[in-house]
Amino acid sequence: MARRISAWLSTNEKAMLCFSDEPDVFYLAKVNKAPDFEEFLTFGRFTVEFLCEPFKYSVFSKQVILEMDSNSVQYISNGGTAETYPRLVIEAVYGEIQNPKITINDKYLLYNGVLTNNSAIEINTESFLATKSMERDIITTGAYDTAENNILSMIDGEFGALFPGGNTFAYTSANGQRARIRLVWQERYL
Question: Deepest in the core among 118, 125, 131, 142, taking most CB within 10 A?
Fold first, then answer.
């Protein structure tokens, strides 16, 4: 038993830390001070000191799927008490989309490229990543262009956050094409 506990506490990586009195949230934490295992062997208990990020995260992710016409605005509510950074997926389910642009509050992200019919891009505003779905290319051509794995160089603008309360979310495209947009985020609390 002591070896399993020791292995669990010996990592330097951040992990979810949950407490029984707050079952709907977790902290991202790592062990700051290793426990004294002699204390455990002698008394059957020990103290662990964690170093946590300043936020609590909701255990449940929020997801909104929007069918948006070009030049339209939606309102998104973030129930947390701190800003959070969403992951967004723009899908060309209604036809080719040229230069899709997303604006979250006053920050915009513009993809300088074309989404062919039934393809998608994913933008992770927390980890500053942007990737293109190759599923359609594999199905229609049998090919996969690994150069398009990371399309961050084709993105202009700033990665925006959802603030506590109401947020504006706007979509436009150069050719006026409608898009399906999925936002996924975890509410954070101070």
Answer: 125
Residue 122: phi and psi, rounded to 5, are -125, 130
- Say what the pLDDT of residue 142 is: 55
Percent of the chain with pLDDT over 70: 87
CA distance 90 to 129: 14
Residue with the bigger pLDDT between 111 and 36: it is 111
Is 155:130 a contact under the CB 8 Å cutoff? yes
**Whole-model pTM above 0.90?**
no
DSSP 12-49: -S-EEEEETTEEEEEEEEEEEE---HHHHHHHS----E
Q: What is the mean pLDDT of residues 159-175?
A: 96
Q: What's the N-to-C CA distance of the chain in angstroms?
A: 35
Q: Which sequence spans correspond to the domains of the chain? A: 2-59, 60-189
**Is it the case that residue 67 has pLDDT exceeding 90?**
yes
Q: Answer positive or negative: Cα dihedral of 104, 187, 30, 54.
A: positive
Indicate the residue type of 180: R
Question: Is 3.40.50.200 the CATH number for 60-189?
Answer: no
Beta carbons within 8 Å of 40's beta carbon, 6+ residues apart: 2, 5, 46
What confidence score (pLDDT) does residue 1 get?
Answer: 59
CA 50 to chain centre: 24
